[in-house]
Amino acid sequence: MSAPDQEQAEGTPETDTETEGRRPSPRQARLIRITAASVLMAAAAVVLVVRLASRSSVLVVGVYGLLLILCGLVIELSRRGRTRLGTWLLGAGLVASLAADWVLLP
Predict the structure, then answer these.
(1) Which pLDDT tens digit goes with each residue over 21-31?
(2) What letter does residue 80 receive in the DSSP assignment?
(3) In b/e form, how buried is each residue of 57-66, taking b as 16+ CB within 10 angstroms?
(4) Pairs from 58-63 (Cβ < 8 Å, separation ≥ 24)
(5) Residues 9-18, mean pLDDT to the nearest whole number
C-alpha cells in the first residue's frame, strides 16, 4: 500500500462525517444555548408581566427577576465558551424558579 492510500484509508470522509453528525460543533452548541436562554428569558418576562398584573408582590419580582438575571448569565457564559456550565445553570435555575413559584407564590 502506498503512502497516499494509507492516508486515504485512515482518514476517510465517511468517518469524519459520522462523528460530525452526532455532536454539534462548539460554535453550534454556543448558539443553541444562547437561543435557549433567550427564549426562556422572553418567556420569563411574559410570565412576570402576567403575574404582576394578577398580583403585585415583591416575591413575584424576586423569583422572575432572578430567573431573568440567570438567563443573562447563561448567555454570557455561552458566549465565553462555558456551555456545559451554562446548561446546568439554566436547568437548575428553571427548576428552582418553578419550585419557588409553586411553593412561595399562592
Answers:
(1) 688 888 898 89
(2) T
(3) eeebeebbee
(4) 59/104, 59/105, 60/105, 63/97, 63/100, 63/101, 63/104, 63/105
(5) 51
The total number of residues shown for the chain amounts to: 106
Angle at 91 between CA 36 and CA 51, to 5 degrees: 80
pTM (two decimals):
0.71
Rounded CA-CA distance 76/72 in Å is: 6
Residue that has been written with the C-alpha cell 486515504 in this structure:
8
d(CA 40, CA 47): 10
The one-letter amino acid code at 71 reads C
Q: How far is CA 96 from the centre of its chain?
A: 15
Question: H/E element holding 55?
Answer: none
